[in-house]
Amino acid sequence: xxxxxxxxxxxxxxxxxxxxxxxxxxxxxxxxxxxxxxxxxxxxxxxxxxxxxxxxxxxxxxxxxxxxxxxxxxxxxxxxxxxxxxxx
Length: 88
Known about the structure:
Elements: E1 7-9, H1 10-16, H2 22-34, E2 38-43, E3 49-54, H3 56-79
Antiparallel strand pairs: 1-3, 2-3
């Protein structure tokens, strides 16, 4: 999942993950916020717009995810088996 420059609205996240149920996406975003990996900001509009962005902890953890992705790519190239990537 690509988190580079990660600021997304719920609607954008839903479009990027079309097979996820809205309730599941909502739960996951709430859990990520609870874990302090993302922050959300609500804009007083009708309908309300909410933006999600990586917190400082999320940015630090992104380095771990990038390393895991790099490792997966290396292993995939060695074994000639494709890995499944979902870009966000």
